[in-house]
Specification:
7 helices
Length: 249
């Protein structure tokens, strides 16, 4: 009799423990679902880290710069950027706007003229965010581009661009246009020394309206310089572009 009562009590305790564990699990799941819903309903925002850029700091100097592309010669271009200047590059399609950006960052060599830039202080994002490896995760790309970051610091950097916890493990090839741009900005600004001059090549091409507004807000508050190729005058006005450089070709 005593053994049966003990077994019954043990079974009752076991059932109670399983019930408690299930209730805790369900509550945890409900909290996670609520958190995710809040993140969906709350507009995303991005804050680019401060650069501490001085008003007279020289960032880019191109003097009579020329690039040879096949049988074409592009340029000469003379462009100087210092401080927090925000300049739009204009010109017809095929005139060489993207080539100018790539030459400015040193991705393609000059065939003539001079180029001087602030090393380590200039970054470029094109419309495809080509700096990202589509076969790797967001945090994997970040650590590849900034190998000094440990995993904890890399997760913190991803979180500043709304890729929290497991979201940072997403493969880049699965991202939407807006997510891909955020990932590119996270990888560009996630290191210890954020760029002071950001070069943008048609950054709004693959973005929906909400993503464009998020980008505008981030760039408007950015304390660095911008050199931008864009066919969207509203976007250029929203981010405070005040000058232009016309590429003829």
């Amino acid at each position: 009799m005593l053994g049966a009562r003990a077994e019954q009590a043990e079974n009752t305790g076991s059932r109670s423990q399983r019930l408690a564990e299930r209730m805790i699990s369900e509550a945890t799941e409900q909290r996670e679902q609520a958190r995710q819903q809040v993140e969906v309903l709350t507009p995303l925002s991005m804050v680019l880290p401060p650069t501490g850029l001085g008003a007279g700091t020289e960032l880019l100097v191109m003097d009579d710069a020329v690039v040879t592309a096949g049988e074409r010669t592009l340029g000469p271009w003379t462009l100087h950027i210092k401080g927090r200047q925000r300049i739009a590059i204009r010109g017809r399609n095929g005139a060489g706007k993207t080539t100018l950006l790539r030459a400015a960052i040193g991705a393609i060599p000059l065939s003539g003229g001079k180029l001087r830039r602030a090393e380590g202080r200039i970054a470029m994002l094109d419309q495809h965010v080509a700096l990202l490896d589509g076969g790797d995760s967001i945090i994997g790309n970040l650590r590849r581009l900034h190998p000094a970051l440990d995993r904890e610091a890399a997760h913190a950097a991803c979180a500043r661009f709304a890729f929290r916890n497991r979201d940072a493990e997403q493969m880049v090839e699965t991202l939407s246009g807006g997510e891909r741009l955020r990932a590119g900005l996270a990888c560009t600004f996630g290191g210890d020394h954020p760029p002071s001059l950001l070069l943008l090549d048609e950054p709004t091409n693959h973005l929906d309206l909400a993503s464009i507004e998020i980008l505008e807000e981030a760039l408007r508050a950015f304390d660095g310089a911008l050199l931008v190729v864009s066919h969207d005058p509203s976007f250029l006005a929203a981010i405070g572009v005040g000058g232009e450089f016309v590429v003829k070709g």
